[in-house]
Write a structure and sequence with these properties.
single chain, about 130 residues, mainly alpha
């Protein structure tokens, strides 16, 4: 008989093939602070924004599309970690608030940057710490 979680997802029985251990990526900061322009690649977003600005759609539509084009910015999280490590406290807090750097897993969940399914949360809570 199939079982389902609170969200209607089928619960798959654990066959022991995969670990339940959750490993978060950890970045080791370098000794130098990168230039802020090295933190992201905005080339695709810029191309889209230029195309939108030169279009014949309404100003309201342009505003919407320009906002949507920002999702094409590609972030370099290794360099972001380096930048963060060499920044002022205020900048660090703003980077944390923007979820560019997540130092506290519980805070990330609280702020809505990460969400655990009931199954994953239970697995995380059941896994013995090493």
């Amino acid at each position: 008989m199939k079982q389902f979680d609170l969200f209607g997802n089928e619960i798959i029985e654990d066959d022991g093939k995969y670990t339940k251990k959750i490993e978060l990526p950890l970045y080791e900061p370098k000794n130098t602070k990168p230039h802020i322009l090295e933190l992201s690649d905005r080339s695709k977003a810029r191309r889209l924004i230029n195309k939108i600005r030169n279009s014949n759609v309404s100003e309201e539509e342009k505003t919407f599309l320009i906002g949507a084009a920002q999702r094409h910015v590609i972030f370099n999280y290794n360099r972001i970690a380096d930048y963060y490590a060499h920044s002022s406290k205020e900048m660090q807090e703003l980077m944390e608030d923007s979820a560019l750097v997540i130092l506290d897993f519980e805070k990330a969940i609280e702020l809505g940057y990460a969400k655990l399914s009931d199954n994953l949360l239970q697995t995380f809570l059941d896994e013995p710490s090493k």
